[in-house]
Recover the amino acids of this structure.
């Protein structure tokens, strides 16, 4: 399975309730050092209840221009959240299931693209 | 002094490079059917292209990325590919129109059938792309294109009723024999002719070709903000000439010979010589720009090495893709399809595709991670949001209007 297949897959909680779909995957660059930069490690998935289209960069809190385009693009992803890789119970062909009592983190990044 | 010369050269190039086959044909058609009642669209289009070119030039200078590199990064591969396909196909249509334009202009100069000129035009375009330095290529065609000022001269020599022309321009009304839907259809065509997407691909890629940094932004801004509006005056003069000579005679422009008819009447043989040189230079310059744009968009999207600053062997796929585009252009034209018709469709489709490239550039030019301190200012953002609405409306309305009016006929 490649990451591209995972995008858009429906996400369910442990009771089978639908939470949304996979909109993005979040990586951190803190793995083994390589020539240019460290290896990337999958931190978790961003789940969005309304739209699986790209955030177009507006997941960063410092980016809010031009009005009202930025606000409209952010609004498409209202209610979206980040779940850690550890909180994912199963990744199947057509669905992703989360563990019971998973933590929903804010998907926002700061202006420099950091958590 | 050298800097001043550079600015003058840049401005002159922008004026000469503004007009292409799309502007020539669309302005003449509109002038011959609607007089100057659509001249306001040229104004809207010129402000729009200034805004768009200024943003994409700034993105290129501040981030070192040309338009399609930005689109690929921001939209991701799937939406980016859909965007590329649409933009690329419409650009290919414009390449075809420009090649046809060169051939038609050479036919007018030589009385040799245009189909025989097409291979000559294509080989010449290819040779220039293969061999000639970017800056020389741009400046020579831009300067020769300046001879199109003869349209302005001819308009004065025709001694029109200026009050009547100003009346048409300032109080636009749809002429009695035309419908409202064809008026708006041609408004979109004229807007698309002024704001052709390739100009922006070319402008931003050219900024990378010439190695612009943030320091060069002032000059690029002068080039655009002075050069394009003056180029817009040429557009208006083309429409004006058609409005003075062809509209009263009831001739609706369907060929390039009708576009230059008013110049022959107003400025005689000498004017005719100038206008032929100007049209060949303008279409040839635009053929170079559009062909390069097709190479730029493909190479930037797929991550090939690109640019005329590299030797062809080092940017092989970039050069090969342009050769293929030129061959497709020959193939389409050799079916005998009327290049003027291709042009009329290409400007409308340009308007349809415009949001695809405008929106990503608008978003990225607001992104401090790419732009640093050179993000859009407040005034630019207000204007660019107004234009986003205009561009979206034109794009959405174009196809229904095309169907209703039978493509303006």
């Amino acid at each position: 399975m490649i990451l591209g297949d995972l995008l858009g897959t429906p996400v369910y909680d442990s009771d089978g309730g639908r939470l949304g779909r996979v909109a993005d995957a979040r990586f951190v660059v803190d793995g083994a050092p390589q020539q240019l930069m460290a290896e990337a490690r999958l931190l978790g998935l961003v789940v969005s209840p309304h739209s699986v289209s790209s955030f177009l960069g507006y997941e960063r809190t410092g980016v809010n221009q031009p009005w009202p385009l930025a606000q409209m693009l952010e609004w498409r992803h209202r209610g979206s959240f980040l779940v850690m890789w550890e909180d994912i119970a199963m990744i199947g062909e057509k669905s992703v299931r989360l563990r019971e009592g998973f933590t929903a983190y804010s998907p926002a990044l700061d202006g420099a693209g950091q958590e | 002094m050298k800097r001043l010369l550079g600015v003058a050269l840049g401005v002159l190039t922008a004026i000469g490079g503004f007009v292409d086959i799309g502007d020539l044909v669309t302005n003449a058609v509109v002038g011959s059917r609607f007089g100057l009642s659509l001249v306001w669209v040229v104004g809207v289009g010129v402000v729009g292209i200034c805004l768009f070119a200024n943003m994409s030039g700034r993105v290129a200078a501040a981030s070192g990325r040309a338009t399609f590199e930005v689109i690929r990064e921001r939209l991701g591969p799937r939406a980016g590919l859909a965007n590329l396909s649409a933009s690329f196909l419409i650009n290919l249509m414009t390449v075809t129109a420009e090649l046809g334009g060169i051939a038609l202009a050479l036919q007018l100069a030589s009385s040799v059938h245009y189909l025989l000129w097409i291979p000559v035009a294509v080989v010449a375009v290819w040779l220039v792309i293969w061999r000639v330095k970017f800056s020389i290529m741009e400046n020579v065609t831009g300067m020769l294109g300046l001879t199109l000022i003869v349209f302005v001269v001819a308009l004065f020599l025709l001694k029109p009723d200026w009050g009547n022309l100003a009346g048409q321009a300032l109080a636009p009304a749809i002429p009695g024999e035309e419908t409202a839907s064809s008026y708006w259809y041609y408004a979109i065509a004229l807007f698309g002719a002024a704001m052709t997407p390739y100009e922006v691909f070319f402008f931003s890629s050219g900024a990378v070709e010439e190695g612009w940094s943030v320091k060069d932004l002032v000059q690029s801004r002068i080039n655009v903000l002075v050069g394009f509006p003056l180029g817009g005056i040429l557009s208006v003069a083309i429409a004006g000439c058609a409005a003075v000579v062809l509209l009263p005679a009831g001739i609706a422009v369907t060929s390039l010979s009708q576009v230059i008819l008013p110049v022959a009447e107003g400025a005689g043989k000498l004017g005719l010589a100038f206008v032929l040189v100007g049209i060949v230079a303008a279409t040839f310059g635009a053929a170079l720009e559009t062909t390069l744009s097709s190479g730029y968009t493909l190479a930037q999207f797929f991550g090939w090495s690109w640019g005329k600053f590299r030797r062809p062997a080092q940017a092989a796929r970039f050069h090969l893709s342009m050769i293929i585009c030129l061959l497709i252009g020959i193939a389409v034209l050799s079916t005998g399809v009327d290049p003027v018709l291709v042009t009329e469709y290409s400007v409308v489709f340009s308007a349809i595709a415009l949001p695809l490239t405008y929106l990503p550039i608008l978003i990225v030019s607001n992104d401090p991670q790419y732009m640093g301190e050179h993000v859009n200012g407040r005034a630019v953002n207000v204007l660019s949001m107004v234009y986003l609405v205009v561009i979206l409306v034109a794009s959405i309305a174009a196809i229904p209007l095309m169907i209703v009016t039978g493509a303006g006929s």
Observations:
- Chain A has a mean pLDDT of 81.
